Amino acid sequence: MLYLLDASVLITASRLYYPLERVPEFWDWLVHQGETGNVKMPLEMIEEIRDGSDNLAEWMSDHHRLEALSLGEDADVGLVRRVIDEGYAPDLNDVEIEKIGRDPFLIAAALHNSSERLVVTAEVSRPKAQRANRKVPDVCDDLGVRWIDSFGLIHALDFSTGWR
Predict the structure, then answer these.
(1) Interval 65-95: pLDDT, tens
(2) CB-based burial label for 20 (10 Å; 0-12, 13-18, 19+)
(3) pTM for this entry
(4) How far is the C-alpha of 72 from the C-alpha of 70, rounded, in Å?
(5) Mean pLDDT of the region 138-149
(6) Which of 99, 85, 87, 81 lies closest to 139, judged by CA?
(7) Start-to-end CA span in the chain (Å)
(8) N or C end: fewer C-beta atoms under 10 angstroms in the chain?
(9) pLDDT score, position 163
(10) Distance between CA atoms of 51 and 42, rounded to whole angstroms?
(11) CA distances from 157 to 4, 87, 137, 151 (A)
């Protein structure tokens, strides 16, 4: 199984649960999981992190980490369009497209091979949200893409600091 990481997973982890300077084991583990092909990120998710101005953006700029975590595929424009049309709305305006951000690229990457890929996101489902306010889990559900949250990833790939 290939776990495709939403930028929200790394952003939330660095801000709340596993700060880079306090839990470096998590970040090393994440890179290791990328090297072994268990986790990857579409370029658009990497760019979302690198566009920041914090220590996570700096961490993600390291060539070795980029190579380990990068999915290394070009986005399938047809699948991205499908995600937008069927997951959000077919008639979004420019403001709504900007609000959605890069999430359709993540979901499209999972749709590319939905039997072997799933999305990992820190977003929380809000099934009543509409149009550009929709959340990744709900769009995934509508398109038949499997997803888990950050803690599901940690459980599935057995992250541990060794303090058992």
Answers:
(1) 999 999 999 999 999 999 999 999 999 999 9
(2) middle
(3) 0.95
(4) 5
(5) 98
(6) 87
(7) 26
(8) C
(9) 58
(10) 15
(11) 13, 28, 20, 10
> CA-CA distance, 104 to 96, in Å (whole number)?
13
State the Cα–Cα distance between residues 132 and 101, nearest whole angstrom: 9
Q: Which contacts (CB < 8 Å, 24+ apart) does range 109-115 have?
A: 109/4, 109/42, 109/71, 109/73, 109/75, 110/4, 110/140, 110/145, 110/146, 110/147, 111/79, 111/82, 111/83, 111/143, 111/145, 112/73, 112/76, 112/79, 113/2, 114/144, 114/145, 114/146
40, 44, 42: which is closest to 32 by C-alpha?
40
- Closest-CA residue to 103 (of 2, 9, 1): 9
Residue bearing tokens 């499908």: 82
CB atoms within 10 A of CB 137: 20
Give the H or E element holding residue 26: helix 24-35
Check: CB of residue 150 under 8 Å from CB of residue 12. yes
Residue 161 in tokens: 């600091």
